[in-house]
């Protein structure tokens, strides 16, 4: 019951007491009229509440950052008598907004609520609560909501970057040409063909089979591009409005940009994620980019491994790595040491520093040391 309902109930009680004590018919008529109003309000409100139906549907469950989506919310009730409005509380990205449906009976009503995809992530959007009230405003009942949660996935949007280099300026083709066949890994044999090198002939097996047989060797995969993304809490956006969210967007979009650039040429890409949701992406074709975008959108960026430790853990991959791309918001002595260790293992290294203050004096010694060890340093400023 609303505040207005309690006030009307007090008037009804006063009129009933006055009618009984004074015997005045006027007070009796007032009490009867208020009782009829209460009965009508209660019946119509309960009827509407018991027959109310609501639902929701996203126009698109997946959008890129910067685009807009909308949530279609519908509601109806089957009370044939006039009812006041139905009020819903709509929640998106932690913010609440009220949407109002008129009390028209039977007919389904729909409201389209705009959703701004401002930041990368997965966000819940939908009705948190729905209530119905009578035309007099005496009663208000909450309508039970079925669990039909809608999740909007906001994907990182890649931008154009310069292609990372491979081992000492090699783009990967020369390294692949030098290792077209691994002579330490024989795979099979086949019949000798004109032009085959004599050192590939399997002499023992040829003498047993009484025909020339040639060894076939495994063809190694091209060198990987290893992307090391800092999945810990971003640093440096404390004094900027939505600073952490903007840094997270820049981290994800830089990683997607690097992966897209490499996979468009068929180069294999590996991106291990040591965040709160540990995962790893691996692909060598552009069709896998959508999966990477979804994995990054689902990554909470916080509570994972220390990034300096991640750099040391990934040293084991360097034998198959042609280029390492490191994307982080933090640049300190420990991170610098980890990057230098990776560079000493052989692959070319590019570091993307995502920061609002690329000219900060505390970064200058670290950048100078990295450049001294032939590490390319690039800056990314969040939008």
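Q: What amino acid sequence fits the structure above?
A:
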């Amino acid at each position: 019951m609303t505040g207005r309902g309690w006030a009307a109930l007090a008037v009804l009680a006063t009129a009933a007491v006055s009618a009984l004590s004074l015997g005045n018919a006027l007070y009796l008529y007032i009490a009867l009229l208020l009782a009829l109003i209460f009965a009508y309000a209660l019946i119509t409100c309960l009827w509407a509440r018991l027959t109310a139906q609501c639902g929701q549907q996203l126009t698109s469950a997946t959008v890129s950052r910067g685009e807009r989506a909308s949530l279609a919310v519908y509601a109806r009730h089957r009370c044939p008598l006039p009812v006041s409005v139905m009020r819903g509380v709509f929640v998106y990205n932690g913010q609440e907004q009220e949407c109002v449906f008129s009390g028209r009976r039977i007919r389904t009503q729909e409201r389209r609520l705009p959703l701004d995809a401002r930041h990368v992530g997965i966000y819940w959007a939908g009705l948190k609560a729905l209530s119905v009230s009578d035309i007099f405003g005496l009663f208000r009942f909450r309508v039970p909501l079925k669990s039909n949660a809608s999740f909007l996935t906001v994907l990182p949007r890649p931008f154009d970057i310069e292609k990372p280099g491979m081992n000492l300026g090699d783009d990967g083709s020369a390294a692949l040409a030098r290792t077209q066949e691994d002579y330490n890994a024989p795979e099979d044999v086949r019949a000798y063909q004109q032009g085959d090198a004599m050192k590939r002939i399997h002499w023992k097996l040829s003498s047993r089979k009484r025909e020339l047989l040639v060894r076939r060797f495994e063809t190694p995969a091209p060198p990987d591009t290893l992307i090391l993304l800092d999945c810990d809490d971003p640093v440096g956006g404390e004094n900027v409005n939505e600073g952490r969210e903007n840094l997270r967007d820049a981290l994800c979009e830089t990683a997607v940009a690097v992966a897209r650039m490499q996979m468009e040429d068929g180069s294999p890409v590996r991106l291990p994620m040591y965040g709160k949701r540990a995962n790893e992406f691996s692909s060598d074709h552009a069709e896998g980019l959508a999966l990477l975008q979804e994995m990054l959108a689902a990554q909470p960026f916080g509570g994972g491994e220390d990034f300096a430790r991640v750099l040391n853990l990934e040293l084991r991959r360097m034998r198959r790595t042609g280029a390492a791309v490191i994307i982080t918001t933090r640049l300190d002595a420990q991170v610098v040491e980890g990057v230098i260790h990776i560079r000493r293992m052989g692959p070319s290294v590019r570091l993307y520093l995502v920061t609002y203050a690329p000219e900060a004096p505390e970064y200058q010694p670290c950048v100078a040391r990295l450049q001294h060890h032939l590490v390319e340093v690039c800056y990314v400023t969040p939008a």
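Q: And what stands out in the fold?
A: Residues 267 and 284 are 5 Å apart (CA to CA).
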